[in-house]
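Justification of computing resources. Each target in the renewal requires a structure prediction run like the one illustrated here; the chain below, 258 residues long, is used simply to show the kind of job we budget for.
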Amino acid sequence: MDRQKRRTVIAGNWKMNKTPAEARELINAIKAEITGKDTSNCEIVACVPFVDIAVAVEAAQGSPVKIGAQNVHWEKSGAFTGEISAAMLKATGVEYVIIGHSERRQYFGETDKTVNSRVKAALEENLKVILCVGELLEEREQGVTAEVVSRQVKIDLLGITAEQMKNIIIAYEPVWAIGTGKTATSEQADEVCGLIRNVLENLYSREVAGATTIQYGGSMNAKNAEELLSKVNVDGGLIGGASLKANDFGVIIDAACK
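Resulting structure tokens:
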């Protein structure tokens, strides 16, 4: 982490977990974990299912915890059954939204083109975007991680200005390390986050690249967070399973706030 240039962000991705009542309980437990602690060096986000947003926003009010959503549609309104627009999210009090998560790409046909459209829609409503990129296991084994991740970043950010980049966080999530218990080594994580930063420098400038928060998001947990966050290009984490346990999430937050 390089706090002189960019903000550390720890974001929990709850995925399809927690009813509204359970969401309130978990937000309150997270608040209890961070009470009395100096979190000024770290942004804390909980990205919750759509049905939990209202309760989560209410429960988090007055605390350092910000609330995010897990997806957004690219149109303002229309015949898109089951989808949610950026304006709808904004109206609920959401500040962040995850876009392009590998599970959206794998199970729901998300492409870099649709990711790009969703990013633009979210930015138009002044939402902060957590943009996910990452390679498959076979792509890493074939030695094309750099090509795959670079292509994703370039297409996903097509048409996004340097000014808009102030509201974008990039989360490097190697697909082979999501929900598998496998984790990239701290060196692997730092290497690819550094690669992403180089792509941003080529697309925009050294200043934009240096100011952009780049998270690691492949099975970061209470045991490995400190080592991962010690790397210069790892500016936080997008946390899956560990974000559903207040104590574990608190340990990760502690590591990020050091």
